[in-house]
Amino acid sequence: MDARIAIVGAGPAGALLAYLLSSRGVDTLLIERQSDFAREFRGEILQPSGIRALEASGIRLDVLRTARPRFFEAYLRGRCFFSVEVDDPEALIPTAVSQPHLLEHLVERGQATGHLEFLRGTALRGLEPRDAGFEMRLLESGRDSEARRRVPFVIGADGRASLVRKRIAPRVVTRSTPLDIVWFKLPLPDAWKVAPRGRFEMGGGHLLISVNSPDDQLQTAWVIIKGTYGALRKRSPAEWAEEMAAHADPELAEHILLHRDSMRSPFLLNAVTDRVVGWTAPGALLIGDAAHTMSPVGGQGINLALRDAIVAANELVPALRSGGDLDTAAARVESLRAREIDRVQRIAAVPPRIVMGTTAAHAIARRGLAMLGRLSRFGAIREGIGRNPVLSALLDGVTEVHLEV
Ligand SMILES: Cc1cc2nc3c(=O)[nH]c(=O)nc-3n(C[C@H](O)[C@H](O)[C@H](O)COP(=O)(O)OP(=O)(O)OC[C@H]3O[C@@H](n4cnc5c(N)ncnc54)[C@H](O)[C@@H]3O)c2cc1C
Known about the structure:
Elements: E1 5-8, H1 12-23, E2 28-32, E3 45-46, H2 48-56, E4 66-67, E5 71-76, E6 79-85, E7 95-97, H3 99-112, E8 116-120, E9 122-130, E10 133-140, E11 147-151, E12 154-156, H4 163-168, E13 172-175, E14 179-187, H5 190-194, E15 197-203, E16 206-212, E17 217-225, H6 229-233, H7 237-245, H8 250-258, E18 264-270, E19 273-276, E20 280-281, E21 284-286, H9 301-322, H10 326-348, H11 350-356, H12 360-375, H13 379-386, H14 389-396
Parallel strand pairs: 1-2, 1-12, 2-8, 5-15, 12-21
Antiparallel strand pairs: 3-7, 4-7, 5-6, 9-10, 10-11, 13-19, 14-17, 14-18, 15-16, 16-17, 20-21
Helix pairs in contact: 1-3, 1-9, 2-9, 7-8, 9-10, 11-12
The protein binds flavin-adenine dinucleotide.
């Protein structure tokens, strides 16, 4: 197949765009360095904005492996100050979606169109401008010699360490993200099997987030102050468990300690927030984390990546169909997405300061938050919180994004 577009990276951004283009008759090449989607780490929480992006693309959540919380809870120093039960099964709420399952589904649907060539286990190693497009150097895993492919247009959806970004984007604005995350899974507590939940626990400069994962485990993110991992690393995972348990409510603390030896593959994730200024170069466009790496705070990155893919399809498909100028079409993607990305990155920078800050002002802010949480049992206050523009930006997005092709 002579692809008109090559997409590097089959994460949420690249896989959805590959499906949208191929299902609209555009011959597309998708390149993914991993041969198994489970080998690349990703968060799994989809917000309503991301769920809507999938549904608009014809991807129904009920065919995917998901874990939908019934309770959302927040704790300060081991005491619950907010708990809400979502008993409406139709309500659109943050939901954990198995990323390997979603990505397999997207590439299978793309391949079924006959317009998608998917190179799994193949890494982009180099990118050189040739004629009006690019020549890519590709290395298939297990081989020692590179192959070369020429394509008229390249999309970099290759994540936070994007090679395409390095090749085409000279200017990157970085925001301080003063946290890192220890990421691991534990067996699911019995009570969570019956009533799935999402729990946030703060206090003592720590944040512990626990949710049911789609593979029926307890996915836990222990958010720590950037730079403190070095000291932690010198201690055994069993000692980490003790430290973590000290910041959890009594029930979860007991569970963590009981299962400290079966903690599955704990690893550190370096949180980064940045944004490329200028997502395009002649013959190329960046989307998803390659264009704007998202902090894990607020669980936004997958959602924004999916919404980028929709906007990119809206702009590129008409130009591809009419023989119009792809560079002009691609340049509109950044201008349509920049406001949402910037707003979400600004919002995501605030909670770490409140939750993990060590000054008296931070402690007062935490207590204020807990007070508000307790008051939210009163309907009028709960409705006020529900209408809060910050919450609505995180749940529903900032700008209108509709699939138009
Ligand atoms: C700790 C943590 C928790 C998070 N939790 C959430 C969450 O709950 N919800 C949420 O919405 N977001 C979350 N995020 C952010 C989210 O994971 C990312 O924003 C999202 O995955 C970005 O999607 P993407 O498609 O742009 O890039 P990625 O998902 O990073 O995909 C890029 C793909 O490109 C491939 N690739 C890279 N280089 C090459 C190459 N040279 N050749 C070929 N292929 C290549 C990679 O293997 C990868 O598959 C979290 C992030 C972190 C760090």
